[in-house]
Amino acid sequence: MGSRGYFRLIAVLLVVVVAASIGFALMMADEVTGSWIYVAAQVLLIAAVVLLVILYQKTIKPLNTLSGGIDLIKEQDFSTRLRPVGQKDADRIIELFNRMSDRLHNEELRIQEQNHFLDQLIAASPAGVLIMDIGHRIDSSNPALDRMLGIRSIEPYRGQLLQDSPLPLLRLLAGLQPDEGRILQTDPLHIYRCTLSSFMDRGFPHPFYMVEPLTEELYEAEKRGYKKVIRVISHEVNNTMAGITSALYAIQQTSTDSGDGDTAAMLSILLSRIDRMSRFITDYASMARIPDPVCRPVDACAFLRRVLPFLESLRGQKQIAFVTGIDENAGEVPIDQVLMEQVLTNIVKNAVEAFPDGSPDARITVTARPGYWCVSDNGAPIPEETARHLFTPFFSTKPDGKGIGLIVIHEILTRSGIRFSLGTGEDGVTRFEMFFKTAQ
User: Fold this and answer.
1) Which phi and psi angles does 297 have, rounded to 5°?
2) Buried b / exposed e along 245-254 (16+ C-beta atoms within 10 A)
3) Over the stretch 313-363, which tens digit does the pLDDT of each residue have?
4) Bridge partners, residue 432, by sequence
5) pTM of the predicted protein model
6) 288 and 227 in contact (C-beta within 8 Å)?
7) Contact, 150 vs 162, CB < 8 A?
8) Direct distance between the N- and C-terminal alpha carbons of the chain, in angstroms, rounded to an integer
9) Adjacent-strand bridge partners of 236
10) What are the beta bridge partners of residue 298?
11) pLDDT digit string (tens) for 397-439?
């Protein structure tokens, strides 16, 4: 039995004594009125009541108040305050309790506000955040990382080890060391700066990954560089060639008039080579002059059916079957029709060139459904080494390639707000996929 139990027992005994005294006084009132027994009973009754009040004020009430404070601590309720009870020692404890509750309450509010701020900051951050548990398994992520991974939520992957994840970016993160930053690339279109760090939570370190997309930054830096180089080269070459061409034409005319056929023939070859160089420079200069797309909602079915005959003509003499899988309910997509024709032309030309002459069962498939277009071919797959350099300016595997076709595609689609991907799947089919923000 605790001290509160003893005090309650004493209080009960005093109540019994008071009740007994009152009962005795009532029974003996007629017989002993005025006698010393009656007076003693009255005094005892008064003393018992006084003791009971003192006991309640000095002991029971403070103990009940302090017991309530203990219950508040157990429930972690730091917003309630205790009232003084008029007992010096108990009031000191109550004052100390109230000060402690104030501090704990303020600290709790501060932590809640910090946690709320951090949650909002992580959720709004353009950088991806992946939080792991103590066992270095996936715990949670922010919306930015979900978008980078192309998933709705990290929940299906919660509890997995990174190296066991089916998502390529997560498997690459598994190779990072603590406090290490590294540039990781999942495919030619996606490059990230990734860092592994940790924070303390209830005394235990929790690892987390920061993932920052670098693709657009690097692409913009490359684009500014090669556009400047192209403009300088184009200006210098065209100005120089203009004067040389004029002089050669004059000499050719003179040679023709004088009957010097050999000289005229040689000058004709030189002029042809100069013209070819001029066209070569003009093709490169076109990359620096791609107009800003003017995107308007366009019916996908009508647009694709209009351009398909031209796209089929690009196969030339090759025996390539064109297959279409266009959903009649593909709906509208926001595109610049002129620039999108150029994009599809470059994609189909690359697909046609993927087939060696005489390829059996050669086919190119054009698919469209709401918010999604795809041009696929079963030609030669893209080698792994080549896949790393796709969309790199001036990179080409063709002997006479300029390395600008995919760059033009990248520029137009990116500026049109259209996501895209290019790669050969495990089934050996190469797909160029486009993902649209469907018109509302």
Assistant:
1) -60, 130
2) eeebeebbee
3) 888 888 889 899 999 888 899 999 988 998 999 899 889 988 887 788 889
4) 375, 422
5) 0.52
6) yes
7) no
8) 74
9) none
10) 333
11) 665 555 567 778 888 888 888 888 888 888 889 999 999 876 4
